[in-house]
Each structure stands twice: as structure tokens, then as C-alpha cells.
């Protein structure tokens, strides 16, 4: 069994409340990786297993946001990062810098409300100053109806360029991503994705290289209950994957989550807001097919808001 402790000193005060969409507000195009995010969050967020995490957040008097986070996962060395972010309100320019224990340094420069379309431009670079083994340059231009993204990953042995674009039409979102190997002058991956969202329902599907298929469904049958499923299929191996998940909001200060996959691996999580600024998370993972195996784990999380 594994035990986990999660001690961030800051969190979103509204994270325990159900997010509601504002009526009449136009939906903006998301990033390609955020397609199907509603279902993905249902299966990934609020599960703390075999992990100890310490997060410190603060804000200086001149508006600089500071974040320090250290994480230890069972069987792996501890990792940590330091992050700073400053936003100039008048110009809408934000600068974010991050350093981690792998000696990777990243910088993000973004600007909001560009031109009459109120678009957002984001430039990101990351590299390792000691080994100089990688350099990642990413450019994102976010508009109301589209969001193209270009990333260049330069390494000592390979050079790759990844680009993606997402367009939106009414309740539909269509996206495409291409990874190109510059060294071998060949396309490595092509991924096409589509999603639909309206009211209490969202659907997502994607195909990679014409062989790997994935998808998800998300539904809110009534207030306080969220359900979803994820599925995947590989044509080359005929392997399939399937997950069911649900979230039940007991009250504004408490909710529970559960999920199960095709291998009978069950995950459960209980989140309780003990008082303003302090949140307790209890998580468990159980292999229902072999209860005596080492796949079972317990997790404990505490969140403090400063």
C-alpha cells in the first residue's frame, strides 16, 4: 500500500463548486490538447495516489506570483520547480518563468486583447542550459473561432516540428496536429480530432495515423452529478481500453469521485473542504480482480490556502 500527502498552501477557492457556463458568452477555440478536457478532468483530477506533494503559492506587493512545488512519487526521486509570473495590466503582457530540478528553464511571454478580434498571442521557449540538449519554441495565437499552435523541438539527435490548429463552428470544434521529423524529412504523426459540446453533454473523438482511435463522452444528468466514459482502440494490435467515471457533489464543501477501467482497476476519491482555505482529500486505488496484488494504494491530501 502507498500513502500520499499533499500540502499546497494555495488553491482555487472555487474549485469545490460546480463550474457553470455563462449564457450568451461566445465559446472560444481551445488548444488542441484541451479537446475532450471535460471528460479527461473527470478521470484525472482529485486523485492522489502514492505521492507526496508540497506546493507553496504567494503574491508579492508588486503583483509577482510565486509558486514552488516539490513532488515525491513512490519509487522515484523527488522533483521540484520554481515558477514566477508577472502581468502588466495596462498592456496585457504576461511573463512567466519556470525552473525545475532537471535544470530545464522555460519562459512564456503572452499578450491579451490583440487588435479588434481580442486575440491572444503566446510565445514559449524551454531549454537546458547545462546540457543544451533541447530547445522548444512554441507559438500560439488564440482567437474567438480558431487557435493555431506551432512548436519546434530541437535536440542533439533529432529535430521535430509540431503544429496544430483548432477551429470552432457553433457547437463543433475541429482540430488537426502534425509532427514532422526535420532530420529524416518525414511526417511522424498526424492526429485529427473533433468535439461537440452543448448544454450538459460533450463528445470527443480522435484518430492518430489512421490506426489509433480514442474518444470520450461527458454528461451532467442533473445538478451535482457528472458522468463520463473514455475508450480507445489500436488497429495494429486490436487492443482496447475503456473507463467509466462519475462525480457526485454532496454539498458546496464536499464531493466524491469514482472510476473503473476494463481491467477492474477501481479509483475512488473523497474531497472535503474542512473550513475556508483547508481541503482534505482521501483517495484509494483497488485492483478488484486481484485484491492481494500490489496495485492497491491509499492517498491522503491536505490543501491549505494562504
Structural write-up:
- The structure is a single chain.
- This protein is mostly beta strands and 306 residues long.
- Helices cover 3% and strands 62% of the residues.
- The protein is built from one helix and 20 strands.
- The protein has one helix at residues 37-44; strands at 5-8, 51-59, 65-73, 79-88, 93-100, 105-114, 119-127, 134-142, 146-155, 159-169, 172-181, 186-198, 201-208, 212-222, 225-234, 240-251, 254-261, 265-275, 278-287, 297-304.
- The protein has a 20-stranded mixed beta sheet, with helices on one face.
- It starts with a strand and ends with a strand.
- Mean pLDDT is 79; it is low at 1-26.
Keywords:
mainly beta; 306 residues; 1 helix; 20 strands; disordered N terminus; 3% helix
Radius of gyration: 21 Å
The span between the termini is 32 Å
Counting copies of identical and different chains, the oligomeric state is single chain
Give me the number of helical elements.
1
Main sheet attributes: strand count, strand direction, barrel closure: 20 strands, mixed
Give start-end ranges of low-pLDDT stretches. Answer: 1-26
Structural category: mainly beta
Quick synopsis:
The chain has 306 residues and is mainly β. The protein has one helix at 37-44; strands at 5-8, 51-59, 65-73, 79-88, 93-100, 105-114, 119-127, 134-142, 146-155, 159-169, 172-181, 186-198, 201-208, 212-222, 225-234, 240-251, 254-261, 265-275, 278-287, 297-304. A hairpin with a 5-residue loop joins β15 and β16.
Amino acid at each position: 500500500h502507498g500513502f500520499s500527502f499533499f500540502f499546497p498552501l494555495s488553491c482555487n477557492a472555487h474549485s469545490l463548486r460546480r463550474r457553470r457556463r455563462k449564457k450568451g458568452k461566445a465559446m472560444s477555440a481551445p488548444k488542441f490538447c484541451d479537446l475532450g478536457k471535460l471528460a479527461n478532468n473527470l478521470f484525472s483530477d482529485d486523485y492522489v495516489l502514492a505521492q507526496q506533494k508540497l506546493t507553496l503559492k504567494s503574491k508579492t506587493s508588486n503583483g509577482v506570483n510565486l509558486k514552488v512545488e516539490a513532488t515525491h512519487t513512490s519509487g522515484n526521486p523527488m522533483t521540484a520547480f520554481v515558477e514566477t509570473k508577472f502581468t502588466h495590466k495596462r498592456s496585457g503582457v504576461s511573463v512567466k518563468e519556470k525552473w525545475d530540478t532537471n535544470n530545464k528553464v522555460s519562459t512564456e511571454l503572452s499578450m491579451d486583447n490583440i487588435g479588434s478580434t481580442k486575440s491572444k498571442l503566446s510565445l514559449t521557449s524551454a531549454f537546458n542550459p547545462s546540457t543544451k540538449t533541447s530547445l522548444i519554441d512554441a507559438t500560439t495565437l488564440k482567437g474567438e473561432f480558431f487557435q493555431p499552435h506551432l512548436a519546434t523541438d530541437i535536440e542533439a539527435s533529432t529535430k521535430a516540428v509540431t503544429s496544430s490548429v483548432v477551429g470552432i463552428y457553433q457547437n463543433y470544434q475541429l482540430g488537426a496536429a502534425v509532427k514532422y521529423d526535420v532530420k529524416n524529412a518525414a511526417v511522424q504523426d498526424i492526429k485529427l480530432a473533433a468535439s461537440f459540446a452543448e448544454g450538459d453533454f460533450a463528445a470527443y473523438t480522435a484518430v492518430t495515423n489512421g490506426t489509433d482511435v480514442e474518444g470520450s463522452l461527458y454528461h451532467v444528468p442533473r445538478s451535482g452529478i457528472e458522468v463520463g466514459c473514455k475508450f480507445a482502440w489500436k488497429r495494429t494490435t486490436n487492443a482496447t481500453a475503456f473507463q467509466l467515471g462519475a462525480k457526485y457533489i454532496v454539498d458546496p464543501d464536499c464531493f466524491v469521485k469514482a472510476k473503473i477501467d476494463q481491467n477492474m482497476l477501481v479509483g475512488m476519491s473523497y474531497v472535503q473542504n474542512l473550513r475556508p482555505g483547508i481541503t482534505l482529500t482521501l483517495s484509494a486505488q483497488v485492483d478488484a480482480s486481484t485484491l492481494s496484488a500490489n496495485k492497491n494504494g491509499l492517498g491522503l491530501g491536505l490543501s491549505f490556502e494562504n
